[in-house]
Every structure is written in C-alpha cells, then in structure tokens.
C-alpha cells in the first residue's frame, strides 16, 4: 500500500478518473450529517487564510505563520488497467462519498465564482473538474465517475454551460402540492453552491438568522433545498467579494489535507474495505455483502458488470421516466422487526443469512455470519445471486403485500400479529413450493392458524426465534413434502411456549378474553379483518377488504358505557361490573368499521329512537347495517332487539365458529367462504 498526502485541488489536478465500482452503494451523504460538517471544516481553514492576510495587511505580523492543515480523511484506491485512448483511472475502494463530495464542491464553487467579474477562479477550477482528453469514451472526461445511479446527475452538474436555474428545473423539490425528493448528489451540489455564495458575501452558515431565533442560515438553506423549487441565495443584496473567493481556493489548495492510499498487488481490497473506519455514513451490512460477493467475482475472473446488472442492480437502481437510473429508495427505507427498525435490504439479508446458514444470528452481525456461511463450502456464485434475487422478491411480498390474493392476505395478517421471526420459514417455503399449488396454501394456512391461535390465547412469543429455527431446519431437511414437515413439527410442539392451541383452548380464550386490551387494537383488528377476507371469496362482488389503516375496531357496547344511560344495568353488582368490563373488550362486542362510519356510530344507543320533534334517530344497530363489511350483517337480524351480555356471548360463539373454519388445527383445506360468511352472520335460534 502506497500512502500519499494531497489537497483537494491536488487530488483532481492531474488527468485521472476516480471510478466508483458498479457494485458499491450510491451516493448517500446527507446535508445535516456529513455535507454541513464538511463545509464547516473547509470554512474554518478559509477563514484562517483571511485572518492571516488581514494580520499581514495591517502590519500586525511581518511574516506569515504556517496555517494548520485540516485532515479530511482518506481515500483508498487501486489502479485500473487502461488502454490506448482512455484516461488513467483508479477504482475507489473506500472514500467514494468523500471524493464525490469534493468534486461536487469544486463544481459548485466554479458555478458560484462565475458571479465575480474578471476573476480567474472559474478558469482555474475548470482544470480540476474535467480531464482534457481527447478520449475514445466521453465519460473519461469526468474526474469522478459514480455508480449508475449518479451518472446522470454528474453529467448534468459538470456541464460547462450549466446555470443553477437548469438544476432547479431538472430536479424540482415539488410538483404542485406533491413533495418530491431531489437526488442527494443534487442536494449536496445546491448546498455547496449556496454555501460558496454565502462565504463570498461574508456569511457564516452556523450563524443565527436573527438574534431572536435559533434557526441558522444553514438550517434555512437545507430546508429551502428540500422544500422549494427555487432557492433564493442567502443575503442576496450583499455583493460578492473576490478576495474571499481567493481565500477559499487557497484553503482548498494548501490547507485541507487528504490521505490517499493506493493498493498494491498483494493488498486484499475486501479486508481493507471491511476494516477501514471513515467519518462517512456507516456502511450497511448489505453494502459489505455486496462488496464481498463482487470482489469474489472479480477474483474468479467473472464479468462483474454483467453480474451486477443482472442480479444486483435492482437493489440499488430504479429506471426513471427518461430511461435514466436513480437510487432505489425502497430497499433503504426502514422496516420494523420487533422493537427495532432496519433498512429493508439489511433486514432481508438478516433473514436470508438465517435461511442459508440455519443458525440464529444477531442483527448486528449479518455480514460476519453471511461471510462465515459463504466460506464454509464453495459456492456457485451466479446460482447464489439468482437465489438472492428470488428470495428478495419473496421477502418483498411478505413485508410489502400488494393485491388481494392469499399470499398478500397472509402477509397482512403476519404484519398485524408482528411475528417477523417466521420470515426465514416463509422464504424456505416459497422457494420450495409452487405459488399456485395446494401445498403452499396448506403450509401458510398452518402457520396462520398456529400464530393466530397462540395470539388469541395470549401465549408467549418469547423463544419464537429458537422454535422457528427448528421449524426451518425441518423444512430444509425435507426435500419431499416440506409442507408436511412443517405440519409435523407444529403439531409435535407440546411445551406452553410452543404448543398449537386446540379448539377447546381457542374457543375458551376467544369467548372470554378481553382481547382489545390484552391483544392490543392493531392485532385485534388484523384478526377480525382476516375473518372478513375469508368470508368473501371469489364469488363476492369484490374480495377487496379495506386495508387495516382504513379500519377501526368498534365497541358495540361503548367503552364509556358507564356514562351512557342506554347501556347501564340497574343496581349492578360488583360481579356484573367485572363481567361487563371483560366482555366490552371481547371479540363478541367488537366489529370493524371504516373510519368515517366509526365516527358517526360513536356512542349512540343500540336501538333506533325518536326525538322530541318526532324524528327518528338511527341507533348503532341500524348504522352497523349500513356497513359494507359482511361481519356486520349479523346485526341485521330481527331477533336482536337489545345488546347485552347474552347477545355479546352469542356473537362471540358465532365469530369463534367462523375463526375455527379459517384457522383449524390442523389446516386441511381452504375454508369455504360461504361457511365463514354464514358463521359470521349466524341467525339466532
């Protein structure tokens, strides 16, 4: 490894290109966390230059003292073999965020300094942002060549004919009332452009805008870049000072230091990539996995670019309307599992590593566990990448369900029950069983029954990670009929922490437990919604059930029943009071409504009534009858005139019979929608 010290201008002063390997992550630096602090470091060195110049000009000092350099960090790279007519290039192994940001700073500085009349700075900066050529490939002219997600942006921002208005137009922050997100690279460019203008006007971005508020110029600038299509320069009425622009250039030229480390043949890029700790955005576990896999591909002499485009690029890129590419934000969004949240792509690789290794791993050790599994035995690299892609699609359908088929509804139930520990089991079943076959339906039905029954019965989820590891091992170890292996292990579980509740236990808890309080509203809503879906079937006008976010759990006897005359019992005993408090929150007293109807039902009486003017006031029974949900057809029955403990108990039994059809033990076949619908609206004897 050959170390060398340089400056910002020195890094880009020779005709070289810094290439970001196609398999590395895209640009991820954010204004508050990395770009703003980087600008502060550079601002302080530029101010040190101005202070020294002032002292010399005023005679306070006779000879300049050495200005302390600021170390910005390191960039690790390896030479790329080049052919005739191509630019000498380096692949950036570590430091791609820093090198890209510094090039964006020079581009922004050039644009900002064009407002200085007669200044040489724009011309001086031209040499730092373009390799002169000639070259056979147009992209060789760019000093930094990012991954595909940033290539469109770097081309546009490097355009010598660019004006900032073109950037605002190409990358708006909103479309009417709809908020858009500018690419992070564009946000950085705009921030640094306005920061350079502000510096030339004598503005410190860390200063408060007014003495009476805490908002700084930097805060205001960041907010404007994110919210406004056009960003007004800070203190635009102030003139640009050419001497301050010279001080900024001098700081970049001599007082901001970077360490470059050029790898030699015997150096292992993967080891260096894993162990370097830079100041930038922490690497995701998936970033380490990606780098490991594709460096392995390079060692094996594979076509890395082809492999990346075919198998990995969908994790990083999404095509834009103009057939360009931008960062795929879906996989970077956070997803909750248990009490913690993780980027979806890391959560996927956490579960994928469990699936492949069949070992319990820590979420903080995903890469180490993945690497250990990979190196246990030789892997067919392309076949494994194909399996990653297939499993990622299965993972996505589980965590982001779409449509109304049985897979989507299973996923919605699992999300409402919050049992992400079954994800490796789901991935194993999906890659072994046909989506359209009865075997997968049986397997997911068994899982849904097992998890729903345990939730309704209030049984613990502690130990699920160990139990479902055994389940996973049984499935993987059964090359034939993995769905039957799943059923066997679920039925064989007998400990309280693992047992699959039978009909007796399930019925007792369903009819007696105050689930709204103990199971909590979200899980209760998910269970009731699954019943509604099962009752519809393909013969209904639509098997679409509103998403859980559009539904609320309605208490037929209101939670505030003690304050409402129509629901009180004269001379209520303590025993009656305790029973009422339980049944109010039990399944028999709960139903689902869309939110607008829920607010209109409110705390009214159960039966219709007549007001003093002779007008009919619809009660809960009539309003529930207006619901489009099948479970509320139960309230159409003429035999229901009052809603009391006996009526609640009768409906709890009816719902329970429907639930046993949907979640039997064991699951034998799909519950017939007609039977479920009949049980939901069962007529009184």
TrEMBL record:
InterPro entries: GmrSD_C, GmrSD_N
Alphabetical list of Pfam families matching this protein: GmrSD_C, GmrSD_N
Stretches assigned to coiled coil: none
Domain GmrSD restriction endonucleases N-terminal: 10-294
Secretion signal, residue range per the UniProt entry: none
Domain GmrSD restriction endonucleases C-terminal residue range list: 500-657
Protein name: DUF262 domain-containing protein
Organism of provenance: Halopseudomonas sabulinigri
